[in-house]
Amino acid sequence: MVQKSKGPRRRTRNLLKIRNREKTPITRYLKEFEIGNNVLIDPTPSSPKGMPFRRFFGRTGVITEKRGKSYIVKIKDGKKEKKLIARPEHLKAI
């Protein structure tokens, strides 16, 4: 028997499908956000580095700090508040 995969990208065939056949623009990688901005978590499948876990795709949050090239995003998951580390290409300003 083959062992079942338990990786972070399992069951994501449709979720991480590239929507159009264009390259991701370089401006998406060079975005800057201010602390306190509201952002939408919208992953870019072509860049796995700094991608949040798939449970948080489509959620909105607030940027609390910058850490290197990445940002710390505070979101509400049920009754808990969680912090995600995400790169700017996976975030959209609201």
Question: What does this entry look like structurally?
Answer:
The protein is mainly β. The chain has a domain of 59 residues: SH3 type barrels. Helix content is 4%, strand content 32%. The protein has one helix and five strands. It has a five-stranded antiparallel β-sheet with strand order 4-3-2-1-5, with no helix packed on it. The longest helix is centred in the N-terminal third of the chain and has 4 residues. The radius of gyration is 14 Å and the shape is globular. It starts with 25 loop residues before the first helix and ends with a strand. The model has no long low-confidence stretch (mean pLDDT 91).
In short:
The chain is mainly β and 94 residues long. Helix content is 4%, strand content 32%.
List keywords for this structure.
94 residues, mainly beta, SH3 type barrels, five-stranded antiparallel beta sheet, 1 helix, 5 strands, globular
How many β strands by DSSP? 5
Enumerate the strands of the largest sheet in spatial order, edge to edge or round the barrel: 4-3-2-1-5
- CATH H-level superfamily of one domain: Ribosomal protein L21
- Contiguous low-pLDDT stretches (5 residues minimum) are none
Largest sheet: 5 strands, antiparallel
Compressed to H and E, one letter per element, the order equals HEEEEE
Top-tier CATH class of one domain: Mainly Beta
How are the SSEs ordered, and which strands pair?
Elements (H helix, E strand, L loop, with lengths): L25 H4 L8 E4 L18 E8 L2 E8 L2 E7 L4 E3 L1
